[in-house]
Amino acid sequence: MTWLLAYLFVSGVLYFFVTHFPLGPVRIVRPSVLDTWTPILPATIPLYLSYLLVMPALVWLGRKSDWLLSAFFAGAIAAIACLVSHLFWPTAIVRPVADSGWLAWLHRIDSPLAAVPSGHVALPVAISVLLAILRERSAWLFAIWSALLMVAVLTTGQHLSYDVACGAAVGVLAGAATAGLLRLRVDLRTTAMILVEWLCIVVTLRVALAAGTWWLYPVAFAIIATRQHALFILYHDAAHYHLSRHRRCNDFLINVAIGVPGTVPIEFYRPLHLAHHRHVGTEQDPERRFLYRNQPWRFRPLDTISLVRQLLGDVLMLNTLRTMRAYRKAGGRFVRPTGPMLAAAITVGVILAIGTVGVLLQKIRSFAEHSGGPNVTPDWDHWTYAWHVGWLGRLFIWPYHINLHLQHHRNPNTAWHALPSEMLAGDRILSSHGLLALLWSGARRRARARTGSRKP
Predict the structure, then answer these.
(1) What one-character-per-residue DSSP string does 199-267 give?
(2) What percent of the chain clears pLDDT 70, i.e. is strictly above it?
(3) Pick from 137, 181, 245, 410: most CB atoms within 10 A?
(4) Where are the transmembrane segments (predicted)?
């Protein structure tokens, strides 16, 4: 139900936006000979509106079936692909005049924009194609529903035959692609979240650049940085082969998603991260050897000056350079730059400020992952923290249950979406409201030490 509500909200907001605020010149789609012969039948309006029931019906029919997640995924990516197309390439049709009646009512509530491809067709086609590949009985229901919707969008004058053909093509591709991911044993939850994060980034960039309003730029700046950070959390999950059971497929997909765009191929990160799991907190821990080399942070609370130095070093990328230098001095393997890596480096250079904010968020999160050892934090006897977080914490610092880092280290074979099930009855958890106080408590300790030294 949560996935359904999230889909309805996101798709509804996007649909309203693309049908009311085109972000470019609108191309008018001309009718074909078939369209001139197609009658307008107001009686098919209820059938046209039945599109709104496709996803709820899917969830109801598949509530006890293994195929529900994959069918939902196929339909969602088909619908969202259509909406993204409308965002970048606005299209519209010239509808028949309707002064009164149900057709006039439909014209008032539904814009002629968002014509090609037809999402009304793409969504049910994607579901029916996937279910047919999986040989599920429900494929017939959604195939018939798809055919009826194809007729309805034409007979209500809401789409033309070209729109329908393009929508059907998107649906077939979405269904076939989902079936391919299933055969490669790809985790569809993680894949869906990768696509959602990129959707946020693409939509944010498109809207900010199209609006050209200066105050939107810092908002876009913050949104993109947080979504880049979230992608790296999913990248961390893929380092443990949770994206796909096929290792080559796992690495290829995550490198395309964020490894190469983020200039950190998974082949470089994985050995260091697995060594971190084996040697957490010791001198062999790569985070101690490389990530915080010559930096103020030593898994201990900082005073004010040291904390400011640490965060400025992250924002200005000085700490990134220190990490790379420490890795090379330790004999780290050189990763030969490839064409995609160089292209990604140029892209990052263009949006350097966004990249540095993303680095800052990652560093703050890494501060919140590990203590300096048992009882360095009062009454906390682990090297690794677990935090209770709210929605703001999940948005900026702890997406995808990375706040349960203690549980992740206890069982790294558990994917991000199953981490809450790793909570034990006796597990303690810190409040996220105490993060700043924890990081900054070195200032209070130093102040108390100074006060004590002045006493006679």
Answers:
(1) HHHHHHHHHHHHH--TTHHHHHHHHHHHHHHHHHHHHHHHHTT-SBSSHHHHHHHHIIIIITTTT--HH
(2) 79
(3) 181
(4) 5-23, 43-61, 68-89, 109-132, 139-156, 162-182, 194-217, 341-361
Q: Where are the domains of the chain?
A: 2-183, 216-333+345-443
**Token code pair at residue 10:** 């996101």
Residue ranges of the chain with per-residue pLDDT less than 50: 346, 349-350, 353, 442-444, 446-447, 449-456
The secondary element (H helix, E strand) that includes residue 93 is strand 91-93
DSSP-assigned states of every residue in 96-128: PP--SHHHHHHHHHS-SB--SS-HHHHHHHHHH
The tokens for 229 are: 């950070």
Are 242 and 253 spatial neighbours (Cβ–Cβ below 8 Å)?
Answer: no
Sign for the pseudo-dihedral over CA of 209, 214, 218, 223: negative
Rounded distance between C-alpha atoms, residue 231 and residue 357, angstroms: 14
pTM of the shown model: 0.84
Six-digit token pair at 250? 């796992």
Could you tell me how many residues make up the chain? Answer: 456
Q: Would you say 299 and 372 are in contact if contact means Cβ atoms under 8 Å apart?
A: yes
Give the domain 2-183 fold: Vanadium-containing Chloroperoxidase; domain 1 (1.20.144)
